[in-house]
Write a structure and sequence with these properties.
The protein is built from 8 helices and 14 strands. By secondary structure, it is α+β, with helices and mostly antiparallel strands. The strands form 5 sheets. It has a 5-stranded mixed sheet with strand order 11-12-10-14-13, with helices on both faces. A 3-stranded antiparallel sheet has the order 6-5-9, with no helix packed on it.
């Protein structure tokens, strides 16, 4: 286990220049630091004439490592140039833990009628009537969600304006209770090889918990039906070849305890997984960290990616997530992967 840390996330380096009319990251970091030191409640200037109220910044969200609510806000401020583009225009699913990782977790989909200026809310339909949803892409919205007790940031895979067409498909590797992390690594590599055999590029990241997420970039106008079919095709091949170590059995009680669940079912409108660079509500304040495929080996330890270590890693390796997703997959490769070989036709149904 990595050494415990008493505190994390302090503004140690210069921040990117803010767009005109918006407060700089440096000024927000300084304000958050001052507010936490002076009692935990106060106001942050986010633009001329606009401010964001925050409170209880000294509340400890992660007791094991001493990370506070204010630390989480400062972490998101520091990684904003990397994280905000990944969640831009995406509706957000709220997982609220207002008392920290040791407290109750509850989900929230809808935004209230009144939200602070600068926090983005849109009318979005998941299934049925449109409702008010928080939408990602700017720092005040993320900070307000932390103020509400959200530790992780969980975006949809599609964006406002194209809600029926995801930008990527996700395969979520979820270990059984007795499955070691090294098995997760092996399954991830099997999937990478399988996807490559199908002519598909993929991008891995730690889940921030015990698993690994594998993203498959999709061409424009790909349907969710095709997204899930593509992910399931790769999963089916791996499970067929490694039936003892992997499963696609959805029912938890029916899965082998030592196997890895290859989950493709998050690929639907309104579903979500933790964003790249998101903090997770886990005891060590771990972060969902994008990876290079050559990092996915037996030395990989997801506990090394935390609110303390991630900003420095970003300085070293840059934005692996955005770079990886920019390397797209062709419509023909996705079509061929998503349709069984005996049913392939010369069509791009679901991909225009």
């Amino acid at each position: 286990m990595p050494a415990r840390r008493s505190r994390t996330v302090r503004p140690r380096r210069s921040a990117p220049r803010a767009p005109r009319g918006k407060a700089s990251s440096a000024s927000i970091l300084s304000a958050l630091e001052t507010i936490e030191h002076d009692g935990g409640s106060g106001s942050i200037d986010i633009a001329p004439g606009r401010s964001l109220e925050v409170s209880h910044l000294d509340k400890v969200f992660f007791a094991d490592v001493g990370v506070t609510k204010g630390d989480v806000m400062r972490y998101y401020t520091r990684v904003a140039p990397f994280m905000l583009p990944t969640i831009a225009d995406r509706p957000l699913v709220l997982k609220r833990t207002p008392d920290g990782v040791g407290g109750e977790l509850f989900f929230q989909q809808n935004a209230p009628e009144s939200v602070p200026d600068g926090v983005r809310v849109e009318n979005v339909a998941a299934q049925g009537e449109a409702q008010r949803r928080f939408v990602g892409g700017d720092l005040p919205t993320v900070l307000h969600l932390v103020q509400l007790g959200c530790i992780s940031i969980d975006p949809w895979m599609s964006r406002v304006g194209s809600l029926d067409t995801p930008d990527y498909a996700i395969i979520d590797l979820d270990p059984g209770p007795s499955a070691p992390f090294k098995l997760i690594v092996r399954v991830a590599r099997w999937l990478e090889e399988t996807l490559s055999d199908l002519g598909l590029h993929s991008v891995p990241k730690t889940s921030g918990s015990r698993g690994i997420h594998i993203a498959i970039p999709l061409p424009r106008s790909t349907s969710f039906h095709v997204a899930i079919a593509t992910a399931q095709a790769a999963a089916a091949r791996v499970v067929e070849q490694h039936a003892r170590q992997t499963t696609v059995e959805r029912a938890l009680e029916n899965r082998p305890r030592g196997a890895v669940y290859v989950d493709c079912l998050q690929n639907a409108r309104g579903k979500s997984v933790a964003s790249a660079y998101s903090v997770r509500a886990k005891p060590d304040a771990t972060v969902s960290a994008p990876l290079k495929w050559d990092e996915v080996d037996d030395s990989l330890d997801p506990r090394e990616f935390t609110t303390s270590t991630m900003p420095d890693r970003l300085d070293r390796v840059g934005d692996l997530w955005r770079t990886g997703l920019k390397q797209g997959n062709s419509a023909s490769a996705v079509r061929d992967a998503s349709v069984p070989a005996d049913k392939r036709r010369r069509t791009t149904a679901g991909i225009r």
